Amino acid sequence: MLIMKRIIRDWTIFLLFCTFVFLFLFAEEIRNNSIFTRIPSSFFNVNTIFLSIILEAIPFILLGVFVSAIIQSFVSENTIQKLLPRNAYLAVIPAALLGIIFPICECAIVPVISRLIKKGMPPHVGIVFMLSAPIINPVVYASTYFAFKSTPYMANARMLVGFISSIVIGLIVFRLFKGENILKNQADKHPHHHHHTKGNKFLETLYHASDELFDTGKYLFIGAFLASLFQTFFDRNALLSVGTNTALAPGVMMGFAYVLSVCSSADAFVASSFGSTFTEGALLAFLVFGPMIDIKNTLMLFAYFKKKVVLSLLIVTPIVIYITVSVFQLIFLRGGAL
Asked: pTM higher than 0.85 for the full model?
């Protein structure tokens, strides 16, 4: 019965996706057909935004699941243990900088971190890497620098706030869940594949990648759909009245980043479009919070991590970022010191 429910759910999501693709490809013909003239244009907007999020995220999802599968097949637990400092507090510093070497988007990072933790990476170190990698990497730095050409110090501010915030959040997770397994029990989730691949690392990698892609893709589709609904029906003009309020604006922009779910390699251009309305601190909060937590990766987190861990991240992350951004805004941003 449980297997049947999963099959029905998975096929329902697949068919819905096919429907969105069909509507995207033939939207103009449908609009011109007299039978469908009463369909609101906002419905087509939801469809277009949904597919744009999916198309933007899919390459990074593919990257993430293949990296995860390669880790599963070729990286041993001993290798992970040798690479990491033994001190639980010192280990978070190199973890926060790994994105410089492994520039993984937030769309792809969750399955990678899940696999690394299963391989022996301390959970809090994995959390630091997961939060920092979508921000502290060359691609994101370059896009932020070009998006804020008139205030290039925003790129440096984003890197520093992302670095500090990810470490603080990781240490809080360490204190909250010290010694606990923070992952959902997914053992033997796809046992049927593994008998046929013993000794063949290439096939084993492909099977792991396909399993990860199927599991992660479901949550990406749901998250993208929710984000497209918010983007279509949420009145952005309502945000403008609080844009210059130093206390409220960062929180508002964090909420905006959460529902927009824009990839970190492109979100700087969205943020810069609000430059004349919102404070630099608010824009910085948008740039740091969005890559760490948004709708689509929240659903992916629930797929891999225990519910209490995800809920803790949803509470701790905005608080830490708000405080860090407020301090930076007070000390640095007013004068463009960075």
From this structure: no
